[in-house]
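TASK: fixed-backbone design
INPUT:
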């Protein structure tokens, strides 16, 4: 991007420098933590002391976010270079025009020109309604009179094109229509997001986990959950609405206070401002510049919590002081009458795994929480809300520290199927982080029996991919699968990120990677034509996915209890891909625009 927002300074680099200094003052050079929290308190005190030194603040290069005509003009000029008739990189052109809009002042010529240029792209792409909307926005931004004729001619041509299409009854090509998504079994009366066969259990070994009270087969859909809150990934800020996360590349409009957020409508802009963005607007640019998504998502969780309590910190403080976390059970709560406060409770109690973290890991999260707290107090309305009450300042810090730990363990990553030019294929691409408290109750296995599929509205569905016997546990996969990695590598990465020693069936039985798995008995179970299925699904066509999906499920259900075999694991991968093609959003429609030479 032209403003180099993605070239983060790296708050973790500064922390590493601080940690080397702090270790000299910590017991055992910061190698261990005591059980009573004394070490944590010392780390907190030392980091807070360092934060108040000028060199730390100077190192982060913090600055207020300001609109800039020069940056707006530079981005628009770059967009023009992509829109050039000999280049025709339409998507990149629009992203630059959106960048220009973000930097432009309200009712400025720079803003009006960016809207007008975006209308030109829309016209060339035969997106006439969006062309007309951009023309309206350009005029609302005081489009210069000297260029009015040019805009009027484009408006007339777009209206005529729409009229011609209506007269001709032309069928405009549309992307593949996705199938209706529904639970396989009757929904739980009080928890309609889940099938009534799912229950939450708890044990010392597994903590809280999800079991089924009936036999399940591959292809069953047992959970469908909307997020409690979400965070758009910074690289998609010029393509999707910051509030609803929907793709509105050609009609986004900017926040008037910052140069980061964009919205698809005035209603989304209003709702964002009424909730999280009133606090984040002055600091979100610095947050994305110095942090990874984990701290930024922690901040979003806290700002949404405050909004859930109607921006009343006294009420939030009182509620949390009286909350018995052991009684919060998202599977036992009546979601049909749940308040926003009830919903936040299910987020608040998500596992932090703080007890399993080493001293440096905890120190890093303390540092993140301190930096975020100070930015929020210094630049946002939270400063005035907390200034006379140390308890509220402490509350803000405690919540930030808590959720910078719950995030890596519990937050999920909405994605869509993005075209990959190098492989000429579609692969899931993450565009956001989001919280799903019910989904977070499903534990990990390196040989999972369920998979998560992100739907176009931002919700998640849970699909059974291996037969599961009554009374057995559902297992998701947290990114480490036995078909791709050996046991030692999986365990090391899971411990590093999630702080547990994996003892799933794959780790206990030391299942091999895919190419080392045994093959099925072809005469007994039949032959599955893996190459043919692979080639068909690579085409990413709905019809082929619908043809293969039931055949793959039948194959899996016929020998799923004999896991693992090479052919069975391949079929599991293919059934997930067939499901994704049928239900997930893709950029197939825009593929030719991104890569017109393919």
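OUTPUT:
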């Amino acid at each position: 991007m032209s403003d180099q927002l993605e070239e983060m300074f790296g708050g973790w680099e500064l922390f590493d420098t601080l940690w080397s200094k702090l270790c000299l003052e910590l017991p055992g050079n910061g190698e261990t933590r005591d059980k009573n929290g004394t070490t944590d308190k010392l780390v907190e005190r030392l980091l807070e002391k360092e934060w108040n030194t000028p060199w730390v603040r100077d190192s982060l290069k913090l600055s207020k976010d300001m609109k800039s005509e020069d940056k707006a003009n530079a981005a628009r000029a770059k967009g023009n270079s992509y829109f050039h008739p000999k280049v025709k990189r339409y998507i990149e052109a629009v992203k630059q025009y959106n960048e220009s809009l973000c930097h432009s002042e309200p009712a400025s010529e720079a803003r009006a020109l960016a809207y007008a240029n975006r209308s030109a792209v829309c016209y060339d792409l035969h997106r006439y309604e969006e062309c007309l909307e951009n023309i309206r926005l350009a005029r609302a931004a005081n489009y210069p009179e000297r260029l009015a004729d040019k805009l009027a001619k484009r408006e007339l041509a777009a209206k005529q094109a729409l009229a011609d299409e209506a007269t001709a009854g032309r069928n405009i090509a549309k992307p593949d229509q996705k199938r209706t998504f529904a639970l396989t079994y009757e929904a739980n009366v009080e928890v309609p997001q889940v099938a009534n066969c799912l229950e939450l259990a708890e044990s010392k070994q597994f903590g809280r986990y999800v079991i089924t009270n009936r036999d399940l087969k591959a292809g069953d859909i047992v959970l469908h959950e909307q997020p409690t809150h979400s965070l758009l990934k910074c690289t998609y800020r010029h393509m999707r609405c910051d509030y609803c996360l929907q793709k509105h590349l050609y009609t986004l409009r900017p926040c008037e206070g910052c140069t980061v957020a964009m919205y698809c409508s005035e209603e989304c802009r209003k709702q964002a401002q009424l909730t999280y963005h009133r606090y984040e607007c002055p600091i979100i640019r610095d947050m994305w510049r110095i942090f990874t998504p984990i701290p930024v998502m922690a901040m979003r969780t806290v700002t949404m919590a405050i909004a859930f309590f109607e921006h009343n910190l006294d009420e939030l403080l009182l509620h949390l002081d009286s909350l018995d976390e052991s009684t919060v059970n998202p599977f036992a709560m009546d979601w049909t009458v749940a308040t926003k406060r009830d919903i936040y409770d299910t987020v608040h109690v998500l596992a932090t795994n703080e007890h399993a973290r080493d001293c440096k890991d905890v120190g890093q999260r303390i540092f993140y929480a301190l930096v975020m707290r100070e930015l929020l107090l210094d630049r946002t309305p939270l400063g005035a809300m907390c200034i006379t009450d140390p308890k509220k300042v402490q509350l803000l810090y405690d919540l930030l520290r808590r959720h910078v730990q719950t995030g890596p363990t519990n937050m999920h990553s909405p994605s869509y199927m993005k075209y990959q030019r190098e492989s000429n294929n579609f692969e899931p691409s993450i565009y956001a982080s989001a919280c799903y408290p019910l989904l977070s109750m499903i534990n990990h296995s390196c040989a999972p029996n369920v998979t998560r599929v992100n739907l176009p509205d931002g919700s998640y569905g849970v699909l059974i991919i291996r037969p599961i016997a009554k009374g057995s546990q559902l297992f998701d996969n947290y990114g480490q699968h036995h078909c791709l990695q050996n046991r030692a590598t999986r365990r090391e990465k899971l411990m590093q990120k999630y702080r547990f020693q994996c003892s799933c069936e794959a780790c206990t039985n030391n299942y091999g990677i895919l190419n080392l798995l045994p093959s099925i008995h072809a005469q007994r179970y039949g032959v599955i034509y893996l190459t043919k299925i692979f080639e068909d699904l690579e085409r990413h066509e709905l019809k082929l996915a619908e043809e293969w999906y039931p055949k793959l499920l039948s194959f899996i259900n016929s020998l799923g209890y004999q896991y693992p075999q090479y052919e069975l694991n391949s079929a599991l991968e293919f059934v997930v891909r067939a499901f994704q093609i049928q239900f997930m959003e893709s950029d197939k429609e825009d593929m030719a625009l991104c890569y017109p030479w393919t």
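COMMENT: The CA atoms of residues 135 and 151 lie 7 Å apart.
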